[in-house]
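Q: Predict the assembly, please.
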Amino acid sequence: MKRVDVILSERELERLIGVINSSGAPGYSVARHITGQGAHGVVTSESLEVTGLGANVHVIVFCEEPITKNLCRELKPLLNYYGGVAFVSNCEPV
Amino acid sequence: MKRVDVILSERELERLIGVINSSGAPGYSVARHITGQGAHGVVTSESLEVTGLGANVHVIVFCEEPITKNLCRELKPLLNYYGGVAFVSNCEPV
Amino acid sequence: MKRVDVILSERELERLIGVINSSGAPGYSVARHITGQGAHGVVTSESLEVTGLGANVHVIVFCEEPITKNLCRELKPLLNYYGGVAFVSNCEPV
Amino acid sequence: MEKVRPSPGLVDTALAFQNILTPPVLFFFLGVLAVLLGSDLEIPAPLPKLFSLYLLLAIGFTGGVQLQRSGLSLMVLMGVGASVLMASVIPLYSFLILRTRLDVYNSAAIAAAYGSTSAVTYITAESFLRVLQLPYDSFMVAALALMESPAIVVGLLLVRLLAHAPQKPGQQKVGVGAVLHEAFLNSSVFLLIGSLAIGFLVAQQGPTGVQKLELFTDKLFYGVLTFFLLDMGLVAARRLNELRRAGPFLIGFAVLMPLVNASLAIGLASLMGMQQGTALLFAVLCAGSSYIAVPAAMRMTVPEANPSLYISTGLGLTFPFNIIVGIPLYLQVIKAVIPAN
Amino acid sequence: MEKVRPSPGLVDTALAFQNILTPPVLFFFLGVLAVLLGSDLEIPAPLPKLFSLYLLLAIGFTGGVQLQRSGLSLMVLMGVGASVLMASVIPLYSFLILRTRLDVYNSAAIAAAYGSTSAVTYITAESFLRVLQLPYDSFMVAALALMESPAIVVGLLLVRLLAHAPQKPGQQKVGVGAVLHEAFLNSSVFLLIGSLAIGFLVAQQGPTGVQKLELFTDKLFYGVLTFFLLDMGLVAARRLNELRRAGPFLIGFAVLMPLVNASLAIGLASLMGMQQGTALLFAVLCAGSSYIAVPAAMRMTVPEANPSLYISTGLGLTFPFNIIVGIPLYLQVIKAVIPAN
Amino acid sequence: MEKVRPSPGLVDTALAFQNILTPPVLFFFLGVLAVLLGSDLEIPAPLPKLFSLYLLLAIGFTGGVQLQRSGLSLMVLMGVGASVLMASVIPLYSFLILRTRLDVYNSAAIAAAYGSTSAVTYITAESFLRVLQLPYDSFMVAALALMESPAIVVGLLLVRLLAHAPQKPGQQKVGVGAVLHEAFLNSSVFLLIGSLAIGFLVAQQGPTGVQKLELFTDKLFYGVLTFFLLDMGLVAARRLNELRRAGPFLIGFAVLMPLVNASLAIGLASLMGMQQGTALLFAVLCAGSSYIAVPAAMRMTVPEANPSLYISTGLGLTFPFNIIVGIPLYLQVIKAVIPAN
Ligand SMILES: Nc1ncnc2c1ncn2[C@@H]1O[C@H](COP(=O)(O)O)[C@@H](O)[C@H]1O
Ligand SMILES: Nc1ncnc2c1ncn2[C@@H]1O[C@H](COP(=O)(O)O)[C@@H](O)[C@H]1O
Ligand SMILES: Nc1ncnc2c1ncn2[C@@H]1O[C@H](COP(=O)(O)O)[C@@H](O)[C@H]1O
Ligand code: NA
Ligand code: NA
Ligand code: NA
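A: Predicted assembly structure:
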């Protein structure tokens, strides 16, 4: 099994969920109010809450290897355009 | 070292912590207000907050291999009965 | 690529971010309001909110292997003094 | 309120509109509209929790104060007793109806939800009565707290007695104790009963303590209710999709059941000699479906049941139905059946 | 208010101090100070959201009630029309100025932000008028809602027509529909318009509903605004660092632009015969820069633009400038130009 | 309030009950009960933070307004000076007592906590005085802010001078500057002092600004305090378990120390000629133990100390003791010692 971690702006969450669903993944989990720093600067929750931009979200998807492939293919352009990062690692179901 | 990620409904958190403690794990961490989708449908935080069912929690346990075994043995029936997912991966202490 | 997970008290977050920045990591993400249990006892969010101590944070850093080395070297004394845990695992960019 | 009524029909419509055109109900519609139009309006957690804690504390406290003033009369006991009775009987006949289409687990869970009641519906009815300046006994809030538990217990018994499924591998037996604990000590019931007791105690000390807190419980009440109903509109509308999947049987059940339960309640109220306002509260208590304490308890007792069924019917359909159509409708019937005093 | 004015100069200073020394503005300073001194004071999420939802609901509702009372007069239509016009014109000349130094993307995004307006600045100006007991038309709140959309649309058109960059690999075309959806249905605009409509409807039913909600919308207003401005002080001060990086051109733009826009607005107001209070609201609407709806829409339309530029200028500089210097200054000019009635 | 007192004993009991049977204290009990019975009642974060921000802002503002009205008299300076003195002296003798059983680190941390004070206890005492309609000087709120810092500084000095432990590998030296920063700029102290200064400034401008904010700071105060004490009941009760582990020595310390400190304070107050109400506030300031600013600073200065010790004693025992037994008890002693004026 694979585990995909995606971190990007909350604004793009709906778009990301669309990509996850169309990849055939059996599920996903979302943590909100994530702050951080990356290529596009610092994200702090307070200021963005007021501006309506929202903070980041951290989305985790556990899925089989082939689905990971689909997911990554669709994910890349999203991350390139809007920013954010995603990484894949190995895991085993209990 | 192993890392166990468990995601299930907040309602079952106390039961899960009981299982973790009895497995001999040296600790755990809990993130609340996790939303997501899985075999039992979509979990959104707003509606569940009102119904008193709570959203999901994401629990992480770092522990030695043998303890993982104990943990997984007890975890399986919990997940089967109440829903939720759990995965194990490798890691190293810093 | 490596993934470093650090969990410690929110009070030490600024210090940790200092360490991450000086290690040369390209970014990091922070989840707040993490509760849990470890060598220093149980951390519940409610009581600490009032005492001003804050709950825990979970910080994730994705970075290249050599940077992980820097990071871990600086992280260890921090964790020894103030408590908290950190683990390293492997991952691939999408 | 006009003294000369040109025709009953006209007045009835006015009454219906009078509830719909109050700020709380209009903001409920606004919430529904936001979801239907795809606006990103949301009341982020834990703000809805703040509102519901406030509302429970306020109605509990006010009810306790009034209970102390009116004393524990026979009327009080009868009103509360009738509510507990209805909370035990409604699940039984609901179960029989539901079993014609659904399995034991889902039938029991939905039946329990309809046996208990909806705090927000009750509060909306109460604020409607205040706007109309129709007197009522605010001790009925005690019934609001006491209806959760019997419904949960009956739901539990139905499952225990009637479900013969072989235990699934790994299934964990949930003790009756744990369920009763949930039934009596879940946060909503606990806060309501606690605030009621505190209102009672404080009122016994004299008017100072009551007055000081009333600035908080009275003045803000309508505004917080308005905000809360805005959120409930968002929540209910998000459930509409799931409702479609529930099918016509459940949709019919969610609309007809409150009518049946309210009719029974109005009959009982008339027999017991309740005044009009109190009768409306009683009808609303019986017509409502719980989406707070009962679902939590059912999730524990009957994980086999599908939460989206028992939550969606109550929250997505019965709740809006009671708020919009039910409250003014029941009051019209009550005005026809029970003489004003 | 004193009748005998010793000297115009003295009075003007008093007026300026009168705004600065109100609790909301002083708490704004306290927030700025907290960041500058490194205090860990913060208003954790989602509390600022609670305050802003409350303020939008309250001004929307109050505006709707007043609109119903005053009726949809020519004055109302002209005031709202002028606001929409300014929201379309300001981005055009702002864009021309910004293009001398910045690329198309950033110029369009910043221009759109200055075309729209700042709700908090508007609310602070309104509460300033209340303290001075200067009459104003509260229907201007409708303009507050209606200025977001034209600015967003103009910003979008500017990018579509003038950006000839080759599409980046993987770039996703955002439909005009999605942007318009964001422009008209984002939560702030939606809640404001919805509350306005509800205020209008409730006021038509008579005074009862209005009075019941006014306990909530009136009594708490000033306190919630105070809390919100404390938070805005924290937020604005955290943006100061980024501003330094923005360079002198943008800093100058962020201070001069509100002066230009307010001057134009005061001229228009004088031509249209607005009363003094309403003219101030109109000037403030034009002088403000949006950091709520526009940034969200721009992030969607022009991800190429740097959010820290358009948010920092509006939030870190134009907003405090308007609150502290702008509001009393514009009012002085208005008092010189428009006769009191 | 009755004029004819049948017997002193009776009155005393009545006084004690009068505090216990106020809504805030009763809701504190309800919170404790919820934890003991295992109810899942909780006030989710960040709502307690909202309540405490509000309470600090409100008492700071009110205190500032009163300070402006009464002027900076000798009485004010003496009252504040005595508080700062006590905050420096209490940690010294507390440390000596604690060192008989605990190491330097834990002794210093607990001593510092008892040198400082508990804002909620102070607020509860103030609201008790309001119910009794006993006059008091609300400038004592300045002392509330100023007692945190000396206690932290003394705690820091004790560790620096008396702890000779070899530095642990990897230990990081925390600068005195960082600790002083924490002592003077932590969010509670900062907000309190800031609100005090703003109250002072606004009151100088005349009554309008004060009146507008008082709708918010006065009317809601009692209700928010009630909610906050409900939460404090939950929090304190959760600490009870840890207390058991702390052992009888610390339990005795947590109950006897407030009595000793309050006695000293009442003696001083009598010497200084404070009026009864002010003397109660002073006694409560000295009797309280900080669980807000001091723990945060101690965690930074002395990570070797066990936070559960210094938080649990203050929050789990001294705080409830002061609220329930202390406040009415101190007032009785004061009434015996200081003549009413
Ligand atoms: N190397 C990294 N490790 C962990 N999180 C990251 C990293 N880079 C970016 N992020 C997260 O992803 C968000 C968006 O990234 P970016 O678009 O690169 O600014 C940041 O605000 C961080 O929360
Ligand atoms: N494949 C998955 N990847 C990530 N999270 C999942 C996955 N499946 C389920 N979850 C999470 O676990 C929760 C409960 O799962 P379930 O009981 O399968 O509905 C979901 O609401 C998700 O938050
Ligand atoms: N074995 C573990 N697995 C997951 N989280 C842990 C573990 N040990 C400690 N933690 C987290 O790190 C925090 C601080 O750890 P400690 O200083 O060991 O008490 C705890 O409150 C937990 O949230
Ligand atoms: Na019912
Ligand atoms: Na503008
Ligand atoms: Na003290």
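The interface with chain D takes residues 45-46, 49-50, 53-54, 57, 61, 181, 185-187, 190-191, 194-195, 198, 201-202, 205, 208-209, 212-213, 215-217, 219-220 of chain E (CB under 8 Å). Confidence is low (pLDDT under 50) at residues 1-11 of chain E.
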